[in-house]
Write a structure and sequence with these properties.
55% of the residues lie in helices and 0% in strands. It is mainly α and 141 residues long. It is globular.
Amino acid sequence: MQIEIQNTKECFVQLWRELERTRQLFGMQYKRFCIRRILKSWMPTEATDDFIWEVCELASLAFDEPVYGYDELPPPSLEPRKSREFLRALVAYKLGIGVRHVRLKALDAAYHTVFPESVPINVRKRKQADVKRGRKKRKPP
């Protein structure tokens, strides 16, 4: 991977595209699409066990359960949350900043640039906001 990791939307667009290319490549090779393999293919010399462990630890901050290197990631266009947290953790670790300092709006905007017709990332947030405002779900006709 020839991407210089930065905390910008342009870098995030490249990371999302590279993630999708890697998923397709692994699918053709019948390989598991997991954090360990992704990092080993993107950064073969840097991806030591400690590096992978640190990225997984940072990624697990967003979830209630730990994330492991061999956990399979779902396709980013169908379930983007885990992939977003993985990319967020990777950027945070490579830049030496906290996960909360990664520009999340730019990361989400880059996702919608790369996958314009896919599932929105923050569906759950929108549903929670609607419940707080007192809106009811529509019943199907």
